[in-house]
Design goal:
Low-confidence stretches: none
Number of helices: 8
C-alpha cells in the first residue's frame, strides 16, 4: 500500500486532481477508447456469428488496428485515472472484475486476429465460420459486456 500511497502523492497526480479539466478529459478519453475498442470488437463478433454476411471478414479484420488504438488510449487514460485513487481501486471489487474481463477481452482480440489471418478467406468462400470463430465471438461479447458493466459500477462500490 505504501507504493500506492506514494503514487497518489506524485506531482503529476496531484496536478491532475487539482486541475479542473484533467479528470473530465481523462474520463472522456477513456470513454472514447472504450467505444472504439468495443465497437470494433462487437461488429466483428456479430459478423462471425452470422450477421451482416455481406461484410467481408478480411476488411473487418483490418479494423482491429483501430481496436488496438482504443486499447492503448484506454491503457494510458486508465492508468492515469487509477493513479488518482490507487488505494481505493485495489480494493474495489467491480474495478478488479473489470480488469480481469478487459484482459480476457484483449486476449480474445488477439485470438480473433490470428484466426482471421488464417481462416478469413476460407470462411468467405464457404460462407461458414468455424465453431472456434463463433465461440471466440460469443466469448468476446461476454467479456466486453462484463467489462463495460463493471466499469460503470466502480463509482457505486
Amino acid at each position: 500500500m505504501d507504493a500506492l500511497t506514494w503514487l497518489e502523492s506524485t506531482s503529476v497526480v496531484q496536478w491532475m486532481v487539482g486541475y479542473l479539466w484533467a479528470y473530465p478529459v481523462l474520463l472522456t478519453g477513456h470513454a472514447i477508447g472504450l467505444a472504439v475498442t468495443v465497437g470494433v470488437a462487437l461488429l466483428l463478433d456479430l459478423r462471425l456469428l452470422g450477421l451482416y454476411p455481406t461484410l467481408p471478414l478480411a476488411a473487418l479484420g483490418r479494423l482491429l488496428g483501430l481496436a488496438w488504438i482504443g486499447i492503448v488510449l484506454n491503457t494510458v487514460t486508465g492508468l492515469l485515472i487509477f493513479a488518482t485513487q490507487a488505494t481505493m481501486y485495489v480494493t474495489n471489487v467491480p474495478f478488479l472484475v473489470k480488469i480481469v474481463f478487459v484482459v480476457l477481452g484483449g486476449i480474445s482480440l488477439v485470438a480473433t486476429q490470428r484466426i482471421l489471418r488464417r481462416d478469413a478467406d476460407r470462411w468467405e468462400s464457404t460462407g461458414q465460420v468455424s465453431s472456434l470463430g463463433r465461440r471466440l465471438a460469443l466469448g468476446s461479447i461476454l467479456f466486453w459486456t462484463i467489462a463495460v458493466a463493471t466499469g460503470r459500477l466502480i463509482a457505486y462500490a
